[in-house]
Amino acid sequence: MGKILYLTARMAVAFVTGMQGDNPHYYRVISTPKHYAVHSGPEPTRHFTDVDVSKHDVLDTYLPAFRAAVTEAHAGSVMCAYNAINGQPACANEFLLQHTLRGAAPRRALRGFQRVHLDPGTNQKVEFQLNPRDLSMVTDKGDIIVAEGEYTLSIGGGQPATDAPSASGSFKIAGQIMLPE
Predict the structure, then answer these.
(1) Are residues 6 and 161 in contact, defined by beta-carbon separation less than 8 angstroms?
(2) Is residue 99 within 8 Å of residue 67, measured between CB atoms?
(3) Mean pLDDT estimate for the chain
(4) Element (H, E) at 4
(5) Are residues 174 and 119 in the same domain?
C-alpha cells in the first residue's frame, strides 16, 4: 500500500505542476485537487454518506497525495468531498480544513532536496535556493503573500527523533510581502 500512496503523491505533484506551470509569478491555470479528503463509497450515495474512518487512515491513506499537491506543488485550490467524515460534512470538517489544510500545525516541505552520500570524515558543499513563492501562502482574500515572522530552515541526514547529524538556522521577515498573482 505504501508504494501506491507514494506513487499517487508523485502523480499529484506532476499533474498540479504541469497544470499550473513553473513560473513563480503567473499560473497557467489553478489546479484543484479533489475530493478532499475521504471520498469513499458508491457514487449514488456520495451526497449523504457518512464515512467512519480512523485518524490514522485519514493521515496515512487519504492525505498523502493531497499533502504533496498542496505543500510541494502549491495547488491553488482544493475541492472538498461531498460526503460527511466521522459525522461532519467534508466541506465543514474542522480537522480536515482548520487543522490539516489551513495549517493549525506548522507546514513543512522539502525544498531544493538533493540526496548526498558522504563517507565518514568527508565534507561536501551543497547549495540550494529558496524563492519567495516557496515561502508563500494564500490569504482568505486570495492574495499571495509571504507572511511576517520567523522561518526556520533545517538540514539533516535522517528522520526526526534520530541521532543523524543536522543543522538549522532561522531568519525573520519583517512586514508582509505581497507577491504578484
Answers:
(1) no
(2) no
(3) 80
(4) helix 2-20
(5) yes
